[in-house]
Amino acid sequence: MSATMTAAAPTSEPQIRVELRSNPLLLAGVREMVSSVAKRLGFTDEACGQIALAVDEALCNVIRHGYQRAVDRPIWLSVFALGGVWTAAGAAAGTTQMQDERPDALKIVIEDEARQVDPEQIRSRDLEEIRPGGLGVHIIKTVMDEAVYERRPGQGMRLTMVKKRNSATTAAGAKMSGGGGCCGGSGGGQANCDTRTTPGSEKSHG
Amino acid sequence: MADLRGRSGSEALQVKSELRDGAAIVRPIGDVDLTGSPTLKMEIRKVATGSVKLLIIDLGGVSYMDSSGVATLVEAMQLARRGQMKLVLCSLQPKVKSIFEIARLDTVFTIVDTVETALTR
Q: What is the pLDDT of chain B when averaged over all its residues?
């Protein structure tokens, strides 16, 4: 795993960019990293847990469905702090001390080189149906404020997720929102399917 | 270079089980994620035999669970139904309970606070 970290990068560049292999053994470390960074940026413990969960679910989907559980394929995780003194404006102003202007939101981008699928097919499934699997996309879209899938130019897929620091997304809120077969949260309002498998394919988890 | 070696607080999932008063109690300890879920699934299948009428999964030692863990427990519920067993989950930590709420499964499973309460079900 390799990474670069800068404290005052331009807004178009991530504060963190990590390349990791599609090995499930790395998931715990990545969860800890994103949770720790979010905590330092002022997110609540609950929000940190939600961000870590969303990243975990997204990586699991890449590993299981994108790379068919191959453990040696590349995944890139980028973290952007939106707003606050970590922006280019703060750096250009010659800020030498961290002010209490913490970033407003965290944007996390996960990219891979897996086979491309129609982003419209990456949806949550009907939760009324009690069966194993198919919850990953629902969880991501419930706990994050935005979650958008797209094809990368050339090859692979990209998931962009945003969590606002003053986000109201909670587990209790998830029960209140996203009724019926629709996923909760934002990011497309898609429903009734899951992850990166083609419709009708079988999954045992997630 | 970000070196995550030694930073992970989670060890490989350990799963212990015991038989008590005709109930099988399964105790996973650690993170029930994509790596740990197969271990939990194997142990549940091992203990959920015909002689067991009550299957208790004590989640007090689980601080993190993702959708693969939830899927494993949904499979356990299906296994219990087929074997005419009761399945009870107990001692859920708040973070773990929240994923059941997100998946809207908190009312589908029987969830109680303690193993002792679970044994009365």
A: 90
Mean pLDDT value of segment A180-202: 36
Q: pLDDT band at A12, cuts 50/70/90?
A: confident
Q: Could you give the CA distance from residue B119 to residue B23 in angstroms, rounded to a whole number?
A: 7
Q: Which two tokens stand for residue B118?
A: 């679970």
Question: What tokens were used for A17?
Answer: 């960019």
Contact A28 B34 (CB under 8 A): no
In tens, the pLDDT along B28-53 reads 999 999 999 999 999 999 999 878 99
Between CA A64 and CA A22 the distance in angstroms is 9
Q: A35 with A16: CB under 8 angstroms?
A: no
Q: How far is B94 from chain A (nearest CA, A)?
A: 10
Q: Which of A7, A27, A38 is nearest to A167 (CA)?
A: A38
CATH homologous superfamily of A2-92+101-176 equals Histidine kinase-like ATPase, C-terminal domain (3.30.565.10)
DSSP, collapsed to helix, strand or coil, labels residue A49 as helix
Residues 47-76 of B with CB under 8 A from A: 64, 66-68, 70-72, 74-75
Query: Does residue B86 form part of some domain?
Result: yes
List of E strands, A104-180: 105-112, 146-151, 157-164
CB B43 within 8 A of CB B52: no
Rounded CA separation A104/A85 (Å): 10
Residues of B in contact with A170 (CB under 8 A): 98
Interface predicted TM-score of the whole assembly (ipTM), two decimals: 0.87
Domain count, chain B: 1
- pLDDT bin (cut points 50, 70, 90) of residue A181 is very low
Alpha helices in chain B (DSSP H): 37-47, 67-82, 94-102, 115-119
Nearest CB partner across the interface for B68, out of A33, A142, A206? A206
Q: Is the pLDDT of residue B58 over 50?
A: yes
